[in-house]
Specification:
Layout: H1 10-17, H2 21-31, E1 37-38, E2 44-45, H3 48-62, H4 67-76, H5 82-97, H6 101-115, H7 117-137, H8 143-160, E3 171-176, H9 184-194, E4 199-204, H10 209-219, E5 223-227, H11 232-235, H12 238-244, E6 250-253, H13 259-265, E7 268-269, H14 274-286
Parallel strand pairs: 3-4, 3-5, 5-6, 6-7
Antiparallel strand pairs: 1-2
């Protein structure tokens, strides 16, 4: 196996995945969870595949499995091949086209069980929703089909989010900007962040800044993540956003979190796709 850009020595890797080096070594030695590669200088380096296994291990532990059982689950659910993902996406899209709720629910059931949370969200759900959106814009999908798919997928993500506020990890307060109604990507982000051990308080669509402020004062989150798809919805709120940062760290995400807006509000932008954004926030909490 070649050593890629995503390979890290154990200290950096431990900070990235939110697990101590001692526990990582124990999981590697007892259960064979990790498969580090060797650098040219002989250093043991941990890869993205190792990070995926750690994430699956932590999810299984959070579900109440013993360490040995959790390791078996983590190793059994390696990232699926592209062909399997593409087949699952085709199956999902066919169910949407036919307005077949039973088929769509079955596709979701099978996919989350076969692929695990991160590939389910990153490689199936988000690309499928994007494809449905493209078809609608091209006139090849009815708006009713888009609503049908969005509502069922949103319901599935909410079911996966059950009790995601429990635990002892840092708390993230997640919300959509005032006027913003699209919260599926924020739900997906929350699920990915939960896999890093965070607790989630989800306020959802169209959240007033004043509501964010009172909620943050009451719950003391480690971070607030505010999603915006339209920068214009937030430009008039720059002062209120700056005031919010005095209570807790605030991060803006989504297409509307432009460089101009983040500079105006003096807040940080959470970059990258959902998986990268969840990884970034998890790393920030460990620094």
């Amino acid at each position: 196996m070649s050593v890629g850009r995503g390979a890290h020595r154990i200290g950096e890797f431990a900070r990235r995945v939110g697990v101590s080096p001692e526990l990582l070594r124990a999981w590697e030695q007892r259960y064979g969870l990790l498969e580090p590669v060797r650098s040219a200088g002989g250093f043991r380096l941990y890869t993205e595949q190792d990070a995926d296994r750690v994430a699956r291990m932590r999810r299984a532990l959070a579900d109440g499995l013993s360490a040995a059982e959790a390791a078996r689950v983590a190793l059994a659910n390696e990232a699926p091949g592209r062909g399997l993902i593409e087949d699952a996406r085709a199956r999902l899209l066919a169910a949407v086209e036919a307005y077949d709720e039973a088929a769509l629910q079955a596709a979701l059931d099978d996919s989350v069980a076969a692929f695990g949370l991160e590939p389910f969200v990153r490689d199936l759900i988000l690309p499928a929703l994007a494809e449905i959106g493209r078809r609608w814009e091209a006139g090849n999908t009815e708006v009713s089909q888009e609503h049908f798919a969005s509502n069922l997928i949103r319901g599935r993500l909410l079911s996966l989010a059950r009790l995601w506020g429990r635990g002892a990890g840092p708390l993230a307060l997640l919300a959509c900007a005032p006027g913003e109604q699209h919260d599926i990507s924020l739900l997906a982000f929350g699920l990915l962040l939960r896999s890093h051990g965070w607790r989630i308080l989800f306020l959802g669509a169209d959240t007033p800044i004043s509501t964010l402020k009172t909620t943050a004062q009451a719950t003391h989150p480690a971070a607030i993540v505010l999603v915006a798809f339209d920068a214009a919805l937030l430009e008039s709120k720059a002062t209120a956003l700056r005031q919010l940062t005095r209570i807790t760290p605030l991060l803006l995400s989504g297409p509307g979190a432009t460089a101009d807006l983040t500079r105006l509000a003096r807040v940080r932008r959470l970059d990258g796709d959902l998986v990268a954004a969840a990884n970034e926030l998890a790393r920030m909490s460990n620094q």
